[in-house]
Amino acid sequence: MRLDRVVAGDIVKASIGGRVVYGEVIEVRDGAVHFHPISLAAGWRHATAAQVVGHWRRSGRRRTGEDGESVAQPPEQLSLRMAD
Q1: Which of 1, 5, 26, 70 ranks highest by number of CB atoms within 10 Å?
Q2: Contact at 8 Å (CB) between 14 and 21?
Q3: How far apart are CA 70 and CA 64, in angstroms?
Q4: What is the mean pLDDT of residues 15-26?
């Protein structure tokens, strides 16, 4: 798998030594993914590009703006127009 689209915060599935490990990516460096395993019993903390078999991008609504303030919604999004 190509690691150019994997970034910190994503979830990866790696097959290492016949075992499957899921983890949250900490960093991608030197052709390897360093991750925090979801199951703490897993002994692996990194995987090569060949060992990564799945990738899920972290997405969703941002809770705060860049400066830490809450994001204000535009009025048209907040209003409900009911047909008469």
Answers
A1: 1
A2: yes
A3: 5
A4: 94
Residue 45 CB contacts under 8 Å (≥ 6 apart), including other chains? 23, 34, 35, 36, 37
Distances (CA, A) of 10 to 16, 42, 71, 78, 79: 18, 18, 23, 31, 34
Cross-strand pairs, 78: none
**Considering the entire predicted model, what is its pTM?**
0.67
Give the pLDDT confidence score for residue 81 in this predicted structure.
63
What tokens were used for 60? Answer: 């969703």
Euclidean distance between CA atoms 77 and 58, whole angstroms: 24
Report how far residue 72's alpha carbon sits from residue 76's, in angstroms, rounded to the nearest whole number.
12
